Amino acid sequence: MNTSAASVTATSRRSLAFIGTNAGLALHPVNSRGMLLPGEPASCFASFWMADWSRWGAGHALLVATLQGWRSYGSNESLAASLAAELTRHFPEAARFPLGGISHTHDEFDVELDAGHGLRATGRKASLEIGGVLDRRQFAAPNFQLGDSSAALSNVYLPCSAGRLVEFGVEWPGAATVYPGPVGPASSAFVAVAESWAL
Predict the structure, then answer these.
(1) I need a labelling partner for 43 at 20 to 30 A (CA). Which of 26, 62, 151, 187 fits?
(2) Phi and psi at residue 57, to the nearest 5°
(3) H helices of the chain, where?
């Protein structure tokens, strides 16, 4: 691949920080028939990271943000804490869940990832499933806001129709919300593959 001098100059002020996959699920309240309650904000946001390489280390981390606090699961507590502080807390889906401290539980995940179907991350203490892929499209945000700074983000975005989050054998109630986006369907359940962050 040819890399022009112009593109090198444009990105020289940032350095690559993450390569891998990120999946997210914001669960919104439902009624007794399982129907979404219009206008109700999410009760939690889960973010699963597969770091093939990052400046904070490699491995898997599941982050769960709630109004009662943040929790993380994985084999590398430092990686999970860094992903929460440096990236996840700045996601729009996490905006209503301020990050103070974060409690960590050691866990190991078996991961199934299929761009045609979705993602399943199964741990001993927690698990996340996201499926029903609605679309596949390239996404790029050259100035994704991270508080007072910004980052270059790119991935292949897969909005999905459904998701399921379980912690210590208890499934979180709620459902994903799907809505029309400017270039196709968007959802509070998604998988982002071939993802990279430059900070």
Answers:
(1) 151
(2) 120, 180
(3) 5-11, 77-86
